């Protein structure tokens, strides 16, 4: 056997590994500790063992992640016992593992009659192990490991459920942490009724992620998830295909079904290791149908998590009151199928759809009518969160969970007489009161017991389920420091000793220079004014915090450098300057056509959503403006300048400050007047930016001699006069898609509403921009008439502005006029 060792190539990638080979042909093999490596060295495949067992498996793992994290094991249920085992390809291109003594175990079966002349096996950088025909240039794979999922779902992989022929692809858990053999949990799309993502244990449901809401499978807290990933579900008569992609190309992520049946979505960072950004099941209500039928589960009411739907009563009252939920609930009054009504429930994870019926086109009214026409129909709802589609349920309602702000509305059928009953529910009579008092006493006793068992169980669960992830916290801060603190002389050399030729501009915080590091990487260096009060330690901490924020739509902060009193911030370099350079300039603005502008609006929204909803740090930008949006080579918009951001613990939503900083024209009324800021103040600034991008005009310098209006009120006036298209930049006037522009103006107006409560949050904004959420009517925007109140206390402080732009400085001192 011949083993190709392309060490010359791998030296470029990693000086550590010289053992990886790039391809396998029928003349090659993989054996012992030789490995197959993907082209850019992301993944590695080879023989491995688990735990104390000597059994050998052929697996794929991340090459540069330690401790070793497996994403796939080929012969998971057929380990080889001999250490002389090797893997090779047959002449037809079937990978086989031989135990070294002659008889072979075939890993994959493919009965297609193919004619591979020169089969080669390669490991792709997506983690897909493929066999292709070296003689054919059509790029098709004869075989790919992505068609045979293990316990890990990677970006680009497809989970298919084929209604006609099968096979149905699913993730299957390992037996336990040390045995990759097929365990009892399976994660797949259940396509009986409307497709839903489920985890099953054996043949029964273990967890249901809810039905597809047009965006994601709704049963997890998905608002943060959609800032990192995009999901797609393609449903046809024959097949349902589910997949996801990372929005940021650099994100390393995986979804992993652990051996306890918990599906964890994880992202990797060098500083924190694998971080779980969602777990399913995450709480008691996430297990399948904990409250049995016709009930709602709500963890917020723990330990009394189950409640009957209105119009229903516990099937077994006594058991129910001692927190034993089996049997669920039954109707108080049977349906008559004549004059029945519906009771609306909001914020729900919709019930099990495996026996549902659906139509993508039926309106909500017709949905209700259709349900009424069939006596066994018990509930209806919109399919999608944008208020379209129709889903019907029959007979018992199973596995419905209260899901706060992220859930959907559902209408449950009740006998007409029940409506009065529910209406009267509020009125108290003394008999009821006595009953309630008795109930309270009984409940308190039970609660004590239940809390005790609950806590005990929870502890066990945590130990069991989460044990494997403890190691990720062990990595300490040190490696962060190494990557983010630059040597001052390095930066000085890179910028030609801060020469004027390298100067990109001057912001309020100080000048910005372009630099080139020794390895050729281009950087932008912000040299902070020496007057900054902040101590070196505090500064470093801030920088480290900010360097952790990584998103495709944020300018990456690479690190900082400190030399005596001199502080530098080092950013990735953005060749295309900032957005204001384009949209407010009569010649440059031609470069930005409608598609690009809409894309940039989307980019800013995504970046801001990430800042607002990162679970660890809630970042409020506070100085969002067009000059703070930088553009990369592809004209992707990136938010820059976190110089003013405040970091919060994630529970803190609003704070007050007596130091008002921001930029005239972008400040929300409550911030400018009372110094009160929240994520909704950023939403306001975002709205202004949207309107500026669409109109090509600055809010600040907007002159309208006729009406003495600012840009926002101008937009509003045109909107109520029903000629909103006059608002558009002349350059975009011939655009073929006025609806798209109208929607942006509409969203812009919603974002600049006077009161923060009336503005949408960024996750709603993202949905609205995509047309996935109905837009409420806007009312008069909150705009600043220019009268500042003397009562706010204003401190003078350091100033900031866009990284490269000089013409617009942040105001930190507000003058009365
Ligand atoms: C394998 O080796 C044989 C004989 O050494 C040679 O004829 C053949 O072309 C080789 N095949 C490949 C795919 O390299
Ligand atoms: C690789 O294999 C060689 C020969 O079997 C052995 O000496 C060496 O220890 C192995 N290295 C590792 C890292 O297992
Ligand atoms: C493929 O061929 C193998 C052996 O010839 C056979 O056992 C297996 O059932 C076939 N599979 C399919 C899906 O036809
Ligand atoms: C695949 O799943 C669908 C529904 O989820 C089911 O109807 C079908 O029978 C399954 N096919 C196979 C081969 O298991
Ligand atoms: C609502 O969302 C669905 C699924 O994403 C989409 O197909 C449909 O076009 C949307 N409808 C509207 C009116 O936006
Ligand atoms: C409702 O109908 C079921 C069977 O259809 C029956 O067993 C039950 O007694 C009825 N309940 C009432 C309150 O009439
Ligand atoms: C009501 O719906 C169920 C489930 O789809 C169906 O089996 C039944 O035939 C329908 N009944 C009528 C009267 O349409």
TrEMBL record:
<keyword id="KW-1003">Cell membrane</keyword>
<keyword id="KW-0547">Nucleotide-binding</keyword>
<keyword id="KW-0732">Signal</keyword>
<keyword id="KW-0472">Membrane</keyword>
<protein>
    <recommendedName>
        <fullName>Receptor-like serine/threonine-protein kinase</fullName>
        <ecNumber>2.7.11.1</ecNumber>
    </recommendedName>
</protein>
<feature type="region of interest" description="Disordered">
    <location>
        <begin position="795"/>
        <end position="817"/>
    </location>
</feature>
<dbReference type="InterPro" id="IPR000858">
    <property type="entry name" value="S_locus_glycoprot_dom"/>
</dbReference>
<keyword id="KW-0325">Glycoprotein</keyword>
<keyword id="KW-0723">Serine/threonine-protein kinase</keyword>
<keyword id="KW-0808">Transferase</keyword>
<feature type="transmembrane region" description="Helical">
    <location>
        <begin position="433"/>
        <end position="455"/>
    </location>
</feature>
<dbReference type="Pfam" id="PF07714">
    <property type="entry name" value="PK_Tyr_Ser-Thr"/>
</dbReference>
<feature type="domain" description="Bulb-type lectin">
    <location>
        <begin position="21"/>
        <end position="144"/>
    </location>
</feature>
<keyword id="KW-1015">Disulfide bond</keyword>
<dbReference type="InterPro" id="IPR000719">
    <property type="entry name" value="Prot_kinase_dom"/>
</dbReference>
<dbReference type="Pfam" id="PF08276">
    <property type="entry name" value="PAN_2"/>
</dbReference>
<dbReference type="InterPro" id="IPR001245">
    <property type="entry name" value="Ser-Thr/Tyr_kinase_cat_dom"/>
</dbReference>
<dbReference type="Pfam" id="PF00954">
    <property type="entry name" value="S_locus_glycop"/>
</dbReference>
<feature type="domain" description="Apple">
    <location>
        <begin position="337"/>
        <end position="415"/>
    </location>
</feature>
<dbReference type="GO" id="GO:0005524">
    <property type="term" value="F:ATP binding"/>
</dbReference>
<dbReference type="Pfam" id="PF01453">
    <property type="entry name" value="B_lectin"/>
</dbReference>
<comment type="similarity">
    <text>Belongs to the protein kinase superfamily. Ser/Thr protein kinase family.</text>
</comment>
<dbReference type="InterPro" id="IPR024171">
    <property type="entry name" value="SRK-like_kinase"/>
</dbReference>
<feature type="domain" description="Protein kinase">
    <location>
        <begin position="498"/>
        <end position="749"/>
    </location>
</feature>
<feature type="compositionally biased region" description="Polar residues">
    <location>
        <begin position="795"/>
        <end position="810"/>
    </location>
</feature>
<dbReference type="InterPro" id="IPR008271">
    <property type="entry name" value="Ser/Thr_kinase_AS"/>
</dbReference>
<dbReference type="InterPro" id="IPR003609">
    <property type="entry name" value="Pan_app"/>
</dbReference>
<feature type="signal peptide">
    <location>
        <begin position="1"/>
        <end position="23"/>
    </location>
</feature>
<keyword id="KW-0418">Kinase</keyword>
<dbReference type="InterPro" id="IPR001480">
    <property type="entry name" value="Bulb-type_lectin_dom"/>
</dbReference>
<keyword id="KW-0812">Transmembrane</keyword>
<dbReference type="InterPro" id="IPR036426">
    <property type="entry name" value="Bulb-type_lectin_dom_sf"/>
</dbReference>
<dbReference type="GO" id="GO:0004674">
    <property type="term" value="F:protein serine/threonine kinase activity"/>
</dbReference>
<dbReference type="GO" id="GO:0005886">
    <property type="term" value="C:plasma membrane"/>
</dbReference>
<keyword id="KW-1133">Transmembrane helix</keyword>
<keyword id="KW-0067">ATP-binding</keyword>
<dbReference type="InterPro" id="IPR011009">
    <property type="entry name" value="Kinase-like_dom_sf"/>
</dbReference>
């Amino acid at each position: 056997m011949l083993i190709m060792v392309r060490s010359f190539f791998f030296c470029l990638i990693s000086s550590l590994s010289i053992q990886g080979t790039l391809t396998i042909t029928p003349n090659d093999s993989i054996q012992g500790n030789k490995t197959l490596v993907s082209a850019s060295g992301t993944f590695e495949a080879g023989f491995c063992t688990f735990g104390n067992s000597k059994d050998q498996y052929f697996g794929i793992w991340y090459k540069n992640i330690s401790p070793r994290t497996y994403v796939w094991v080929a012969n998971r249920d057929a380990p080889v016992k001999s250490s002389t085992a090797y893997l090779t390809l047959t002449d037809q291109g079937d990978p086989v593992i031989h135990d070294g003594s002659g008889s072979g175990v075939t890993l994959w079966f493919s009965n297609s009659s193919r004619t591979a002349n020169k089969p080669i096996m390669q490991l792709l950088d997506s983690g897909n192990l493929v066999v292709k025909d070296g003689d054919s240039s059509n790029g098709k794979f004869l075989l790919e490991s992505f068609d045979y999922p293990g316990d890990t779902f990677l970006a680009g992989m497809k989970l298919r459920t084929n209604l006609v022929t099968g096979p149905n692809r699913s993730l299957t858990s390992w037996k336990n942490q040390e045995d990759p053999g097929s365990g009892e949990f399976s994660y797949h799309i259940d396509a009986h009724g409307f497709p839903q993502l489920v985890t099953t244990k054996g043949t029964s449901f273990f967890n249901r992620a809810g039905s597809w809401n047009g965006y994601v499978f709704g049963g997890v807290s998905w608002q943060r998830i959609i800032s990192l990933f995009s999901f797609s579900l393609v449903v046809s008569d024959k097949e349902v295909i589910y997949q996801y992609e990372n929005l940021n190309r650099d994100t390393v992520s995986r979804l992993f079904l652990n051996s306890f049946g918990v599906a964890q979505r994880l992202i990797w960072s060098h500083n924190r290791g694998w971080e779980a950004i969602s777990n399913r099941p995450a709480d008691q209500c996430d297990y399948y149908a904990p409250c049995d039928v016709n009930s709602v589960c709500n963890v917020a009411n723990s330990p009394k998590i189950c409640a009957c739907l209105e119009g229903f009563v516990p099937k077994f009252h006594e058991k129910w009151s001692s927190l034993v939920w089996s049997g669920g609930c039954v109707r108080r009054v049977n349906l008559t199928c004549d004059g029945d009504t519906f009771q609306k429930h909001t914020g729900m994870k919709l019930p099990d759809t495996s026996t549902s019926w659906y139509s993508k086109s039926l309106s909500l009214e017709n949905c209700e009518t259709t349900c009424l026409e069939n006596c066994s129909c018990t509930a209806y709802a919109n399919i999608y969160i944008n208020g379209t589609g129709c889903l019907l349920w029959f007979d018992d309602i199973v596995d419905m969970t209260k899901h706060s702000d992220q859930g959907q509305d559902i209408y449950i059928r009740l006998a007409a007489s029940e409506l009065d009953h529910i209406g009267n529910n509020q009125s108290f009579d003394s008999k009821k009161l006595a009953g309630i008092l008795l109930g309270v006493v009984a409940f308190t006793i039970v609660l004590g017991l239940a809390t005790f068992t609950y806590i005990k169980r929870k502890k066990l669960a945590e130990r069991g389920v989460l044990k494997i992830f403890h190691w990720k916290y062990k990595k300490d801060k040190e490696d962060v420091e190494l990557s983010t603190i630059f040597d001052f002389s390095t930066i000085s050399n890179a910028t030609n000793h801060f020469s004027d030729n390298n100067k990109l501009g001057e912001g309020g915080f100080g000048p910005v220079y372009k630099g080139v590091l020794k390895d050729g990487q281009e950087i932008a260096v912000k040299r902070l004014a020496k007057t900054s009060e902040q101590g070196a330690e505090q500064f470093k901490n801030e920088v480290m915090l900010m360097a952790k924020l990584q998103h495709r739509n944020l300018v990456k902060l690479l690190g900082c450098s400190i030399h005596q009193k001199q502080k530098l911030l080092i950013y990735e370099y953005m060749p295309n300057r900032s957005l204001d350079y384009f949209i407010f300039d009569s010649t440059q603005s031609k470069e930005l056509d409608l598609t690009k502008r809409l894309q940039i609006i989307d980019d800013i929204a995504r970046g801001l959503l990430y800042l607002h909803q990162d679970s660890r740090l809630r970042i409020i930008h506070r100085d969002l403006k067009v000059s703070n949006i930088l553009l990369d080579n592809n004209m992707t918009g990136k938010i820059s300048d976190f110089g003013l951001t405040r970091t919060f613990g994630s529970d803190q939503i609003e704070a007050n400050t007596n130091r008002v900083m921001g930029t005239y024209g972008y400040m929300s009324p409550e911030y400018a007047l009372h110094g009160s800021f929240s994520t909704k103040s950023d939403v306001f600034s975002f709205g202004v930016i949207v309107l500026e991008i669409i109109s090509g005009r600055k809010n600040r310098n907007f002159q309208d001699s006729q009406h003495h209006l600012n840009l926002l009120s101008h937009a509003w006036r045109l909107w109520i006069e029903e000629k909103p298209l006059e608002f558009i930049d002349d350059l975009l006037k011939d655009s073929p898609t006025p609806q798209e522009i109208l929607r942006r103006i509409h969203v812009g107006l919603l974002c600049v509403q006077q009161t923060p409560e009336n503005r949408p949050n960024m996750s709603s904004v993202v949905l609205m921009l995509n047309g996935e959420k109905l837009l409420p009517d806007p009312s008069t925007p909150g705009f600043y008439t220019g009268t500042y109140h003397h009562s706010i206390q204003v401190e003078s402080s350091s100033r900031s502005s866009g990284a490269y732009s000089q013409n617009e400085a942040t105001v930190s001192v507000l003058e009365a006029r």
